[in-house]
């Protein structure tokens, strides 16, 4: 089911964005319709794609009450513990504004302020993700965002997943709309009669949501262009093949384009993991999806040694990277490109997905080479502060004029020259 190859035979498979020309055209038209017709267009697309005609987009209060009766006490306990862990972790990312006094009475600074209004997209449909609520809302709250707007698609009865509703209620999000897809992204970006436009949109979704976020970028901010989920495991002969197979499948079940790769210098482990994948995938409810992902996007690569495995991992730049090797901590500093690094046999990827506190919104498709997990900074903006003194301008004005004139910007130069002349410091 999963291919076993030598390192010199390994080629990386990745989805090409250009394959989505048709979907992009659909999305652009949907955004145009929402911009022109507002709620009417959102309502029409919700009827068409979600199978329900909603007069009121807001989630009725009684759905929240009912949701608590439909989740288990253990789920509620786990959710509340996860909220505490995630909030504590993200609070550690906060930093103050800075003011730096310079010579001649100059004061320079960086002011850090929260965004005012943020939209959070939470997927629905075939699967609902309470964890997406936590991972996207909590860092925004920690950053100090005052207005958080959440959208999520309803089922054909207009209901939202009980787990998602409980997560929303536990976090105290008040502005929640039962809409999804590209129409929800358009509504958040441009506003409608019901929904006021936001400053930034975060959260994962299907290809239509991803393309819509890409299309509205510039009108609003987005956190990333999320692609299919992926995992890469580096393991030696000390690793448990059952653990390795289970962790590879934990990402393969996300979708048929999810990538799962094992790098190991042990041919024996490679064969054991391959056998375990066949054994374990047969028991999964999402077996068809996981099998397709493993068959099309999975690979077990037998490397010369662990150093070659690390080198390949840095080229792949995975979303999730697990180190299941002896003395795993010694290899952390060598991992240059990864969204999240999971160290040791008990740091299974779902620990980060749900509970420990780190954010599970991670860079995908190799973008860990230049981007980071979702964090508090994604919900903050920085402003430069300049208080230049008369003494400093009189001292440095001629230098500023010279630089402006070299660039051919005489009005820039003149803005300084006028001040120097008025103070008797002109030519």
Automatic annotation (TrEMBL):
Zn(2+) binds at residues 251, 254, 353, 412. GO terms for molecular function: histidinol dehydrogenase activity; NAD binding; zinc ion binding. InterPro entries: Ald_DH/histidinol_DH, Histidinol_DH_CS, Histidinol_DH_monofunct, Hstdl_DH. CDD domains: Histidinol_dh (cd06572). Its EC number is 1.1.1.23. Substrate binds at residues 229, 251, 254, 320, 353, 407, 412. PROSITE patterns: HISOL_DEHYDROGENASE (PS00611). Belongs to the histidinol dehydrogenase family. This is Histidinol dehydrogenase.
């Amino acid at each position: 089911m999963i291919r076993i190859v030598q390192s010199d035979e390994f080629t990386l498979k990745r989805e090409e964005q250009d394959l989505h020309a048709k979907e992009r055209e659909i999305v652009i038209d949907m955004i145009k319709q929402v911009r022109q017709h507002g709620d009417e267009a959102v309502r029409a697309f919700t009827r068409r794609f979600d199978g329900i005609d909603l007069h009121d987009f807001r989630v009725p209060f009684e759905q929240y009450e009912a949701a608590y009766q439909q989740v288990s006490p253990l789920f509620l306990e786990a959710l509340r513990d996860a909220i505490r862990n995630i909030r504590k972790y993200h609070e550690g990312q906060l930093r103050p504004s800075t003011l730096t006094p310079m010579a001649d009475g100059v004061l320079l600074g960086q002011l850090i302020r929260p965004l005012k209004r943020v939209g959070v997209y939470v997927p629905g449909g075939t699967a609902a993700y309470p964890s997406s609520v936590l991972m996207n809302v909590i860092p925004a709250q920690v950053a100090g965002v005052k207005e958080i707007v959440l959208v999520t698609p309803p089922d054909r009865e207009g209901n939202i997943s009980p787990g998602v509703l409980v997560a929303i209620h536990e976090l105290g999000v008040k502005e929640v709309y039962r809409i999804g897809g590209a129409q929800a992204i358009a509504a958040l970006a441009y506003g409608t009669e019901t929904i006021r436009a936001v400053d930034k949109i975060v959260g994962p979704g299907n290809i239509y949501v991803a393309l819509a976020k890409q299309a509205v970028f510039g009108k609003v901010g987005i956190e990333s262009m999320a692609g299919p989920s992926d995992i890469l495991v580096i393991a030696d002969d000390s690793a448990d093949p059952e653990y390795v197979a289970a962790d590879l499948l934990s990402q393969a079940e996300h979708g048929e384009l999810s990538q799962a790769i094992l790098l190991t210098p042990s041919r024996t482990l490679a064969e054991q993991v391959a056998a375990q994948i066949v054994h374990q995938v047969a028991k999964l409810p999402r077996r068809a999806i996981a099998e397709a992902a493993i068959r099309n996007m999975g690979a077990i690569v037998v490397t010369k040694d662990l150093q070659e495995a690390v080198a390949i991992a840095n080229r792949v730049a995975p979303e999730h990277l697990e180190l299941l090797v002896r003395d795993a901590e010694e290899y952390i500093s060598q991992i240059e490109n990864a969204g999240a690094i999971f160290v040791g046999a008990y740091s299974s990827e779902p620990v980060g997905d749900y509970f420990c506190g780190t954010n599970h919104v991670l860079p995908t498709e190799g973008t860990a080479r230049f981007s980071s997990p979702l964090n508090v900074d994604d919900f903050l903006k920085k402003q430069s502060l300049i208080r230049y003194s008369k003494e400093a301008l009189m001292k440095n004005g001629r230098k500023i004029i010279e630089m402006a004139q070299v660039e051919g910007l005489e009005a820039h130069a003149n803005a300084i020259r006028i001040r120097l002349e008025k103070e008797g410091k002109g030519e």
